[in-house]
Amino acid sequence: MAGILIVFGLFFAWGSYSLWALWTVYGAQVMAAIQSIGLPEWLTANIGGIIAIFFGLIVLSLGFAIVASMIARRLGGTLIYIGAFFLNVITLGIAIIPIILGVPISTAWPIFIPGIFTLLITLLLLTVFKDRVRRAGEIIKLTGQVTLDEKGTFVPPLLTMIFTLISAMMFGAIILQFTPVEVFLGTQELTIENGWPIGVGLVLFLFMTIFFYQFSYATTSGIVYIYMRGRDPTLGDGYRAALGVIGGIIVLSLASVVVVIIQMILRRIGREAGGVGAVVGGTAAGIVGWIWALINYFTIPAMVAEELGAKDGIKRSAGLVKNNFVDVIIKETAVRWAFGVLAFIFFIGFALAGAAIGWFFTGDLITTLIITVVFVIFSSIPSTLVLRTFDIVYVTLLYVFIRRQEGDFRETVIPAAMERELSNAYDSAQRSGPDL
Questions:
Q1: Comparing C-alpha atoms, which of 389, 2, 397 is closest to residue 216?
Q2: How many domains does the chain have?
Q3: At what angle do helices 365-405 and 299-306 cross, to 10 degrees?
Q4: What is the pLDDT of residues 123-148, one digit of tens each?
């Protein structure tokens, strides 16, 4: 904890100093630019409306988070089918447009690849692995139930988003303050001597954001695990569960930083090679990241639930992924499609609310359109928060269910009807063939 506090303190002190130094140099120019466009006068004249819109956005965010949980609990697997339908319509529809415009198929055929691939994946999931998809639908229902009962699951991801935004602002300030202007203008080459602030700041920024994300993941996962074991957790319980494995989270964060840096190096080498090299470098970086994410799919839930260190948690996660690979793939395809439907509902709901509020208060079409656009842009924040929370909760529930089926423990708070449906789907999936 002392080491973490020192690292965090160093970064924030460095970032705060950089922000202050930049403000002392450019603050007067910034304020003059703001004054020149009349922003202070406009804010003063419309302060009441701005406050009303701000609180309206907050209320809408909370309301839609609850609505999303209710929809997930109610529809479950139906969201998967809705998402699959729209995704296939979009991917195939985009491919058909060039044909309608008269582009020869011999020229336009590459654009059909995403649509055909999506269609094949959909057919495979809804036929060969239909029982596993049915089970995924029940876990989606349980995800909605958990987030409704334990609304504290949304808090750690929210804090992560805020922390990441502040860290990014400070990292940007460090780069601007300590990197020569000539480097940005391209008149001076980036070297170790003039580029060390970028390197040090980048490593600190990566470590802090990855650590905070994984710590918040562990907190939410701890809440879900305690809930599933039949107890009534608080946010503090989740925090203590994450704190109990903080050493493993630190090691896992450091390893993740190394992986990210390797990806950056591969992309840099590819860009310098140019042409096919750029494609190869980007592909290699993507493969490295995908393998690392796949290996660590259940690492955080395993560390929290079984009180494991980073090494044992990674080994445990790799074993679970190997034995339940199809369920992981379904989560990353079908379940993401289902959550995408919820995101779409967010955008539509915010757009309608913005249009209604804009027209009610102004009655002007242009102003209404502007307010609607503001609401739609803002909707990306709560929708991202909800989907990230749903991801964490779903993966933790999948981990709990896998352990239950393995006989590690029998007592959970899964409702009886849902328990029967999950077990039936699991038994059908096992009879249809082993995991890949």
A1: 389
A2: 1
A3: 60
A4: 988 888 888 888 899 899 999 999 99
